[in-house]
Design a protein that fits this description.
Largest sheet: 7 strands, mixed
Oligomer: single chain
Number of domains: 1
Structural class: alpha/beta
CATH architecture: 3-Layer(aba) Sandwich
Order of helices and strands: HEEHEHEHEEHEHEE
CATH topology: Rossmann fold
Number of helices: 6
Strand order of the largest sheet: 5-4-3-6-7-9-8
CATH superfamily: Vaccinia Virus protein VP39
Length: about 220
């Protein structure tokens, strides 16, 4: 109950400030990376899911490995992976996010292949060593490109497409990492994954500002 009250207060007070802040181009530095976030693109430092992924990524042996990020947004995770030596492919349905990813790759002098793609539709079937996913998980229809980072469709269409296509891009030695919040319908998402013969292995739980975040590894049954 207490957390619901806090979320309601945040909705009324903090959300308008965040929306105002995101109307202009913003900049930040992380681990030596100089990042730009364009208006209309998910800002990774305002929402702690990206930082949790980044901290996990830093511990991995990425040099020379293939790395895929569907839904790259500003390119924060993809550029960080490239900095650590991975061969990176970044995908996003939002054309502005693709532009933003390429801009940040160029700024930081790393190689990232960034493509506008509805999930994996624009790449050939190939097994990657690492796949990192920070998905949209709120039920509802995105009414513009910027909302693609938040809404997964009225009937979880994003996850149905994701788990149908995903098995073509990883094997038993791959690490497919997804982060989800307690705010999402975790049971529904896991049931969709199970319907496509995939399962969730909990790696880590981290609470930030009263919100539990779950880091999962996805594997084939």
């Amino acid at each position: 109950m207490f957390r619901k009250i806090i979320k309601k207060v945040q909705e009324i007070t903090i959300k308008p400030l965040v929306m105002w802040y995101l109307q202009k181009e913003r900049h930040f530095t992380f681990e030596g990376l100089k990042m730009t976030v364009m208006p209309g693109v998910f800002h990774p430092l305002l929402f702690h899911s990206s930082l949790i992924l980044a901290k996990y990524l830093k511990k991995l042996p990425l040099k020379g490995k293939t790395f895929l990020e569907p839904g790259s947004g500003s390119g924060f995770i993809s550029v960080l992976a490239a900095k650590y030596g991975a061969h990176v492919t970044a995908l996003d349905l939002n054309p502005l996010a693709v532009k933003n990813t390429l801009l940040n790759a160029e700024k930081n002098r790393v190689a990232v292949q960034a493509l506008q793609s509805n999930l994996f539709s624009k790449i050939h079937k190939k097994e990657f060593d690492y796949i990192f996913i920070n998905p949209p998980y709120y039920p509802g229809k995105a009414i513009n490109d910027s909302q693609l980072a938040w809404y997964c469709g009225e009937n979880f269409e994003y996850f149905k497409d994701l788990f149908q296509q995903l098995p073509d891009f990883y094997n038993s030695s791959s690490q497919v990492i997804m982060i989800l919040s307690e705010d999402c319908d975790l049971k529904a998402i896991q049931q969709i994954a199970a319907s496509f013969n995939q399962t969730f292995e909990l790696i880590k739980t981290q609470t930030v500002f009263l919100e539990k975040n779950y880091l999962f590894r996805i594997t084939k049954k």
